[in-house]
Amino acid sequence: MPSVPDEKTARVFAMDTVAVLTVYGKEAEAAIADFERELLRLERLLSAFDENSGVHEINSAQGKAVRSEPELLKIIAMSKEISLMTGGAFDITIAPIVRAWGFGGENRVPGEGEIAGLLPLIGHEKVRVDGDEITLEKGAMIDLGAIAKGYAAGVLAQLAAEHDIKGAVISLGGNVQTFGEKPGGKPWRVAIQDPLDKSAYAAVVEIAAGVSTAVVTSGAYQRYFEEGGEVYHHIIDPQTGYPSRSGLLSATVICSDSAVADALSTAFFVLGAEKSLEAAENISESAGWEIDFILITDEGKLLYTPGLEGMISHENKAYSMEMIGG
Ligand code: ADP
Ligand code: MG
Questions:
Q1: Among 17, 266, 268, 270, which residue has the most ligand 1 atoms within 8 Å of its CB, making it the best to mutate?
Q2: How much is the pTM?
Q3: Which of 4, 52, 164, 282 could anchor a disulfide with 27, C-beta 3.0 to 4.6 Å?
Q4: Ligand 1 centroid vs 131 CA: distance in angstroms?
């Protein structure tokens, strides 16, 4: 395929995923170099597993207050807020249970007693932000895995604005962020993966040229293991301590704020269709964020919000499209 002048694409392994960075414009190369540097910096700050990360420092503090960087303070404060708004479906203090299931290490099915013993450590109130300090209750831990990539994609979009480029698409494993426009001014087309078939799309969302927005998908298919004929995926319902079973195969959130889109895609996956709709309405009212979403159900439905009418195309007839809310 002939490439568009000044189009550059790079693939970088960062934040536990392959980041695909595409930039259009004169300073494409410089922008990509900046993006890579920034991704690696954020990975070092936000990783729950890197022993030198800011998050690791908080997790090892044994109940003591830790002075943290402004960015970390901001992400944690925002995470707490989103926990409140989603009835705890998104909760960064889920870390001890994510670890019990061996995500990030060796997968295993924890015993019922083990999970029951960990549940009291979960809750947004276990992590406190006071001024520039963060305090975690003893035994509690945080995991920013459900918001870090979204936050990072948003930071890259801000960086993009500092370069002489026309447009960019930043794709970080299920998180897609658009910036500006591509040559020709056609809309961006963001594909939503078919959760049941890795090689197919369930739908395509069109984002108008010039609009910077995030399209973030959380799905059971992204990380899972099988044991005893059962499939266990990596998104945990903080109420039960088990992989969520809400009747959804994936949840996609479209929002101008990429970190919010990431956190909410995880929350909506846990909440299921009805409660997601309620939560989205409450959040739009209280926080003023404009949120659209797409939910794919295990009954073969692709549900989408009215804001996406005319922007979403039906790529896969295996799913029946249905508008919800509004
Ligand atoms: P992905 O990282 O695969 O794109 P998500 O954004 O949904 O998907 O994040 C899932 C990750 O977040 C898990 O791997 C785990 O580390 C963490 N996590 C799991 N369940 C929750 C939850 N209910 N709230 C917040 N974080 C979670
Ligand atoms: Mg997420």
A1: 266
A2: 0.96
A3: 164
A4: 27
Distance (angstroms) between ligand 2 centre and the Cα of 145 equals: 7
Alpha carbon of 43 to ligand 1 centroid (Å): 15
Question: Using 50, 70 and 90 to split pLDDT, how confident is the model at 1?
Answer: low
Residue 128 in tokens: 């406190």
Residues 6+ away with beta carbon under 8 Å from 278: none
Q: Which of 94-98, 121-125, 224-228, 285-289 has the lowest mean pLDDT?
A: 285-289
144 lines ligand 1 (CB under 6 A): no
Q: Is 223 in the pocket of ligand 1 (CB under 6 A)?
A: yes
E strand residue ranges, the chain: 7-14, 17-24, 66-67, 127-130, 133-136, 167-172, 175-180, 188-194, 197-207, 214-219, 224-227, 230-233, 248-255, 292-297, 301-304, 312-314, 320-323
Q: How far apart are CA 284 and CA 307, in angstroms?
A: 13
